[in-house]
Amino acid sequence: MANFTLSGFLLMGFSAKPEVEISLASLFLVLYLVALTGNLLIITTTSMDSSLHSPMYFFLKHLSFLDLCYISVTVPRAIYNTFMHSGYISLGECIVQCFAFSLCAASELSMLTLMSYDRYVAICFPLSYEIIMDVSKCVHSVLGVWIGGVITGTLHTAGTFSIHFCGSHVIHQFFCDIPQLLKLSCSNEYINETGVSVFLSLVAFICIAFIGLSYIQIFSTVLRMPSAEGRAKAFSTCLPHLAVVILFISTGSFEFLKPPSDAPSALDILLTIMYTVVPPTLNPMIYSLRNKAIMAAVRKVFQRRKV
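RESULT FIELD:
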């Protein structure tokens, strides 16, 4: 850490205590391997099994790929820094990390919004589902998610690194977190980033409102179903997705909307973990363990490999 220069930043990591830092890094390594295995399994299964070639699983496959990218942006570097006993990250690496993180976070929200629309159409308009959610629309929708993510990452990164940094250059996080970077501004130079944040917050609010309205319509339709089996099937499909949405949005919103504090706290780290590490790790388990079609497809994949 003594080799820190003005050409980069110093990441404080998970904890100031070395023994706690090593323990948490080891835990994060396990979580990362779980996320890696689970998401790769979903990607492989939904690609190989023809029975899962539907819009729902097409979006799930891309969500799993997004989760892989999302968790890989921050966690491996944080684990590496801990075991190497160095929190230094160069300016260039910090810029790339900010861009990739903003891209993945925005794309994650967009993909969850898209998946809520898919469930809305499937449950509220089942007879028109294949017409509304045809292949070309699904591909164009996912392409739009990635383009929107790239635009968001570019705006956020350009706004953040257009300011001048001074002071300690110490980031009280385990990655280059934009709110923490803005605290290092020499003065109130971050008006551009504030404008970008307000605009993107409005877009995020529209996505969240759309998800909320979609699920109001979904639950209204499900509760009117005469068949108890049909209601159970619909809820088993929608509730896991809703749980992921609530976890991701609630923790991320609270972290970004709470008043900034000069003194770092364990709560800041915990909230960041809740929306950066937990969703990509839990998504495969939530979607696979509660989904009979995916579990059956996973068994088919393993049986083929044994043969």
